[in-house]
């Protein structure tokens, strides 16, 4: 089987400007929603109590909501979770009241209303833990960005490092934008997914950059634009098949993973879709505009080949 | 060109064998078991206990599959849950005569069901996280400021009585937060106090300043002493928690220090959070009372008469009854420290107690008035009292330093010191994170995680086989090997498998196939450009390697950052993610090439390669290279 029967190199770079305008607009929209609506942070970050209760029959969420808010909690959320029999209740952290008291009070009230209710899960996080998680998350993000940039600058050239990181942050911001726009719950698992996407999407850029570097060495007469077009065209089949395979896995998580993995898989799905797009149109185009030249790459590797300690010396890439 | 030397195949075979052995325990699952552990700090579980357990089981006609002493507990594996309950009852009956005062905790547990030879190789299944097996998780924050304030308060009291003893007149000693402020009228007393501080209070550092016509001396706890106090407070709280959790009969509780001031408690299988919280928050108390030595009380001790009015009968550790007065002389609140040691004169094992100022004063008075009589130290745990020791008072004891000695072995002294220290919390704690996962939710999560991995894996393998034919099949096998090695490494590390961990496993497989796609596409490309099949395979693998290396390293960087800064579910995710990248580099490049070499390597005149359609732009129709 062969899906990609491409005769000539596709002129990706001719249209790069249009695509970059589009990606800039989506990026701007994501930033706008992030600031305008903000992320719907899970209890892990904000602190508070989450209870998951199960009924034997479909639950009357409206009545539950009244019962819980009748207990004097401000800003309570009650919603169905997975099935109509499972209900998730969120209580914000209260000063002076311990979580234990909160959850027991609510469960007692629910039991009084319908004795068949069973507690499936409670989760309580103090505000200080949430704050730490948020700063740890930001630290992890900064570490990933710095680490990847240093590695790419070392293996390729700083222009590629800048281009790759812009493209990948673009993906991350767009995922966050989706979460802000739809007010999906942003939990620790989603944070893990976002950071995984950062690693994953840089993968894409690296594969294309590798090809660009190889082409610069192989085809001495081509212009930079032709080289980039050729690199993207010859890797496009791999790009799409790989993404397809990963997406199959993620789809399987989305279908079978249940509610816990739902947003995790959703974040990955968005990351995968924008990962293709950004590595093709954003990363390569920015590298082009930063003025990547043949000399940048041939020179740096010539020096590297002389390094006797380089484990990759002599490897033809 | 495409042949592996024998040693490379040897590496592959060894890796597969090791992978298979360490993955295997996960398939045997877990068998029902009964665990016997110590119910009190003074009761030890040893070979003698194991013999008693074996006898009890033999008497009840139960044939256990395995009885083993494992650290501080005995584990008995049986064949079914029915036998498990019977075995538990039999052991309970034999070892715990009085259910209100259990010397041993007998709990239901699950043990790896793998055969002996696997266990001998230290192959064990992955440990399932709470989200997969159900249970409760608490994170407790220890209030270190309170621990320091408490210490400062007791030091202030000690200082007060010390100055009185030395006849140094001061203008008042006050504790202000964690510092102690003293006022003096003249430099003479100030200097005298400084000398006392330097001599007797090594933990304090002082600053003096003239305050109007008076002199003010501010003493604070030295930073290194503060660190030591905090460390001790945390350790003591953990020991106390351990003692309390024992009562719940939890099979494998996790009590871990996290950071400088936090304790994580995980109780797998526990559903009754209210009870768990109640027990975690319960305080054990220590009391010092006088032994009633009247003839009536003696008779009551022998069991020959009623317990006299105003007294209570407790059991001593040796099992002897002791009748003590109800009046409490001192409580554990006045005890600041207990350490095991030796008597200076007799070299007997002893426990050294340190009392705070108030305690020291009371103790001094009581010992002066009651030389020759017995004094009992009673520990109340779970609402029941037990006499830890009841020594005879030999002489007046002042200064707040008390030594308990006599009829004690070194290990008993250790245990007593531990008990005395562990009786109460060193510093208050509060629950800052709590998680309860129901058992059905845990089981649900396992199935969900398993299905996600299984269906995704099947879909990818099917697609690869259709799209790349034989090469796709090789990729599928390589992916299976990747999964095998990943599970084996996780089992070897005894990593805790969580739902995010399973998600990472699925994602790792999805991303691992990238390497094979890169290789297969490269091989096709070489064929398209007219290379011979053997050269195409060689060039395909070689050229893809650089790309695979670069892209995996960047992904690994992301994974390591997650590992460094993540906590909880993010960490669980990151561990699997990082290991998955490493195993995928082995399986997708090294192992799959091994397969291809085995299949094609010896064919000198290879005409076609089964890698699906290789489409050439210069021909009008597709040339199928597939067989």
TrEMBL record, chain A:
Gene Ontology molecular functions: protein-transporting ATPase activity
InterPro entries: SecD/SecF_arch_bac, SecD/SecF_bac, SecD/SecF_CS, SecD_SecF_C, SecD_SecF_C_bact, SecF_bac
Residue span, Protein export membrane protein SecD/SecF C-terminal domain: 108-291
Source organism, top-level taxon: Bacteria
Keywords from the UniProt entry: Cell membrane, Membrane, Protein transport, Translocation, Transmembrane, Transmembrane helix, Transport
Primary localisation category: membrane
Record localization: Cell membrane
GO-annotated biological processes: intracellular protein transmembrane transport; protein targeting; protein transport by the Sec complex
Record Pfam families: Sec_GG, SecD_SecF_C
Subunit record text: Forms a complex with SecD. Part of the essential Sec protein translocation apparatus which comprises SecA, SecYEG and auxiliary proteins SecDF-YajC and YidC.
NCBIfam families in alphabetical order: 2A0604s01, transloc_SecF
Biological role stated in the UniProt entry: Part of the Sec protein translocase complex. Interacts with the SecYEG preprotein conducting channel. SecDF uses the proton motive force (PMF) to complete protein translocation after the ATP-dependent function of SecA.
Protein family membership: Belongs to the SecD/SecF family. SecF subfamily.
HAMAP family from the UniProt entry: SecF_B (MF_01464_B)
Protein name: Protein-export membrane protein SecF
Gene symbol of the encoding locus: secF
Automatic annotation (TrEMBL), chain B:
TM region positions: 453-470, 477-497, 572-596
Keyword Cell division: no
Keywords recorded for this protein, A-Z: Cell inner membrane, Cell membrane, Membrane, Protein transport, Translocation, Transmembrane, Transmembrane helix, Transport
UniProt-recorded Gene Ontology molecular function terms: protein-transporting ATPase activity
Entry GO CC: plasma membrane
Membrane disposition: Multi-pass membrane protein
Pfam family, one: SecD-TM1
Membership in a protein family: Belongs to the SecD/SecF family. SecD subfamily.
Protein name as it appears in the record: Protein translocase subunit SecD
Species assigned in the record: Caenimonas aquaedulcis
